[in-house]
Amino acid sequence: SAQARIRCIEGTQVVNGQRISTPYCQDNYLAQVARTYGSRVSAAAIRNNPNVKKRVCRLIGQDIRVYQACVGTGIDVRGPNVR
């Protein structure tokens, strides 16, 4: 399948040797980072359910690694010290 050929590195997709930010890879990375916080969420759940993505972004959206993945969800991801 096409998905089997997609190679992601830290939220970016490798295309012809170049890293490009894609929603698919960002969702994969969001799930990966969420699991380091103890969440038991899959990338498929994040991709297929916007409410799951919002919940995860509420939990870890202040982590700079997932900022780009969470910025479009409507969740405030600026961090506690940003005014």
How would you sum up this structure, described in words?
The chain is α+β, with helices and mostly antiparallel strands. The chain contains four helices and three strands. The protein has helices at residues 23-36, 43-48, 50-60, 67-70; strands at residues 8-9, 12-15, 18-21. The chain has a three-stranded antiparallel sheet with strand order 1-2-3, covered by helices on one side. The radius of gyration is 13 Å and the shape is globular. The N and C termini lie far apart (45 Å). The model has no long low-confidence stretch (mean pLDDT 88).
List keywords for this structure.
single chain; 83 residues; alpha+beta; three-stranded antiparallel sheet; 4 helices; globular
SSE inventory with pairings:
Elements: E1 8-9, E2 12-15, E3 18-21, H1 23-36, H2 43-48, H3 50-60, H4 67-70
Antiparallel strand pairs: 1-2, 2-3
Helix pairs in contact: 1-3
The percent range for strand residues is 5-15%
For this entry, what is the oligomeric state of its chains? Answer: single chain
Structural category: alpha+beta
Q: Count all strands and give the number.
A: 3
Binned, the helix content reads 40-55%
* Poorly predicted ranges: none
Mean pLDDT: 88
Radius of gyration, whole Å: 13 Å
Neighbour order of strands in the largest sheet: 1-2-3
Q: Please report the distance between the alpha carbons of the first and last residues.
A: 45 Å
Order of SSEs, N→C?
EEEHHHH
| Large-scale geometry | globular
**Number of continuous helical runs:** 4
Biggest pleated sheet: 3 strands, antiparallel
